Amino acid sequence: MSRDADKDIISVITDDAVATRGDGSKQIKQLKVEELAININLFIEQIGGILEKTPEKLGKFYFEELEVHAEITGKGTIALFGTGGELGAAGGLRFLFRRSLTSDEGK
Known about the structure:
By secondary structure, this protein is an alpha+beta fold. It has helices at residues 3-6, 33-52; strands spanning 9-14, 27-32, 57-58, 61-62, 65-72, 78-80, 93-98. The chain has a domain at 33-98. The protein is built from 2 helices and 7 strands. The longest helix is centred in the middle third of the chain and has 20 residues, at 33-52. It is elongated.
């Protein structure tokens, strides 16, 4: 594989049911960088839609940031970590969304 071709592919370690060998072992999947970039952008847009609907204030508290943990599936899609996920998941993606300050709040 040429060096230029290497730039177009990224390796992802996965334990997806689709990608595993049936014994729970992990596999390395080769994903196209462009496809992964599209999926990450879609995920960010979806989370952005959720954040647009969140209140700025919750009772006496201000909602300033949201931290989201996600993983890359064997097919290259981005999935949120749910409460039923495996403990000890060591990889994945971390997204931190911080509410921007208005000009009055920043002073």
